[in-house]
TrEMBL record:
Region (Disordered): 1-44
Pfam families reported in the protein's UniProt record: Smr (PF01713)
Superkingdom of source: Eukaryota
Protein name per the record: Smr domain-containing protein
Domain (Smr) ranges: 103-167
Record's compositionally biased regions (Polar residues): 19-28
Compositionally skewed regions (Basic and acidic residues) per UniProt: 34-44
SUPFAM superfamilies: SMR domain-like
Amino acid sequence: MGNLSSSTNDDDNSDFSNTYRSSSQSGIPSEAASSRREASQLRFEAKAASQQSQYEYHFGSRSEAEVLSIEKNHLYKQMDKKNQQAATLIFEHFNRDRSYNVIDLHGLYVNEALEYLEDRLAMCRSANILKLTVITGMGNNSPNKIAKIKPQVKKFVRENCLKVTGYSGHIEIDLSTNNEPTADSYQNTNGCIIL
């Protein structure tokens, strides 16, 4: 998978402590919840190093600022690694007994969920699977019970002009038609390919 995670994408994990208060409540494996907590701590430390670096630079200590900036980057890399470990554990946990035409994105950050979805779509297409069921959940374990994954999956589906049927906690993507551009296709005003 490509690395869509970014140390500057704070929206995804800003409510970490609220989301992972009780890993048993959300079904997240405890090892994954622990990795998420460690990533959150690393993010906090990286932000502190960044602020201190800016302070040092502003007051003329450029060499100290550079050392702190390097430390910040190292901490963000560690954070990304911990989040990737957690995502792998979570994805495997929720998908271990599922067939390839079903993917469960529960417990993942949005960017992680989209990475797994892209990979699964490619896998389905190469295996000539005609329908993919994407379990997004309804946001019951999200802060304020507001779904984060499903709206972004819907956006991804729209942007990629996929045929979809929506349900309360999942969507079904129809892969029976080829959505790749051909010489006879053109884009409409929404950016969708018209075949």
